[in-house]
Amino acid sequence: MKVALSSQLLALSVLLACAKAPAPSRVFRVCADPDNLPYSNRQQQGFENKIASLIAHDLHARVDYFWFPQRRGFIRNTLKTGDCDCVVGVPSNYELTLGTQPYYRSSYVFVSRRDRRLGIASLDDSRLRTWRVGVQMIGNDHVNSPPAHALANRGAVGNVVGYMVYDPRAIVDAVARGDVDVAIVWGPQAGWFARQERVPLELTPV
Question: Cβ of 54: how many Cβ atoms within 10 Å?
Fold first, then answer.
């Protein structure tokens, strides 16, 4: 009886200790876009949100987000103003920040409707000069992305349709609807939004 009672008291003491354990006093401040899946969102569903949580766990800290749309001037208006300690995702060798070793690599991908069986696999495919081709444009001044430059160098100009890089769903939707024959989209964005389309899409690395 005494042994059983001692065990119960010990268990109760552990439960009380857990209940009274203080929340982490350290804060890991992260600047992120509140609506930028698959990277981050306010509901913390993106893979950058998961990475931030892992880092905070190792630091015995809690994550505190400073939300800001990831547009031109993002670093200037977040990290450089002291509103956060870290931005989880930046390009490799980014001159505006100190970075870790890159934790993933990706390429652009061709996105097309699977039922059309286009079999597109190269920027040198001559059909890209006649098809309607969707490409992502960067910034409010519609600066050309690498795929747009590559297509222009191959004579595909008049048939190219631009979509803002900040709304990746729009370009994937355009493929699903048939507004464009094929699109060239940054890999993580293409993969995320292609899975949400009702029409099966084909993704092929450029």
Answer: 11
